[in-house]
């Protein structure tokens, strides 16, 4: 129930900023006002505002309140660089339609070639999946996923088409804690040409990710290959002294 309330408040405040009800550089209503409006605890309000701050909508000003830094008309980012979210979560946040198609699903034993690519130990049992991601009807992304079978148990193509992270958290009770990313630009390969709507592009924006659970075990290596004109990663940085 608490999570539902937090999401409700987060979405309501975000919509008011996006439609201009709360304008750029204005202050949000006070915490007391929001507590009364939404009939909830201060902690729930703070959690919703914290989420908005992490996405670049607001900034807390000591002694003054919470100022809106979102500007209507800005192109929304596809992905948040500093966060860990599934594609399902990212497109829901950006209110876009998407589909996922699994074009390869295999159970493999890590050999030296896979070990060099992923850093999984030789002999480990993994799932290897290729998933084509279509956003607003265009095939824009292909993911090459390697998941450790000991952690992501009983994975199926049907689960992979829905959301692997959702399955891990809700069905397996796993915690997804940390990810490390590397971004590169690479030439288009044959698999890209086969499955993606590339237009005239001959290169791809490539994000390689290593993701860890609460035990510090790396359970996933993913190479996500994006058509470059639709590749937008967003980051919010804070200067510390």
Show the helix and strand layout.
Blueprint lengths: L1 H17 L12 H8 L3 H13 L3 E4 L3 E4 L10 E2 L6 H7 L4 E12 L2 H7 L6 E11 L2 E11 L8 H6 L1 H7 L5 E12 L2 H6 L7 E11 L4 E9 L6 E2 L7
Parallel strand pairs: 3-10
Antiparallel strand pairs: 1-2, 4-5, 5-6, 6-9, 7-8, 8-9
GO molecular function, one term: DNA binding
Protein name: Trehalose operon repressor
GO biological process, one term: negative regulation of DNA-templated transcription
What does this structure look like?
The chain has two domains: 64 residues, Orthogonal Bundle (Arc Repressor Mutant, subunit A), CATH 1.10.10.10; 143 residues, Chorismate lyase, CATH 3.40.1410. A hairpin with a 2-residue loop joins strand 5 and strand 6. 29% of the residues lie in helices and 32% in strands. By secondary structure, it is α+β, with helices and mostly antiparallel strands. The strands form three sheets. Strands 4-5-6-9-8-7 form a six-stranded antiparallel β-sheet. A two-stranded antiparallel sheet has the order 1-2. It is built from eight helices and ten strands.
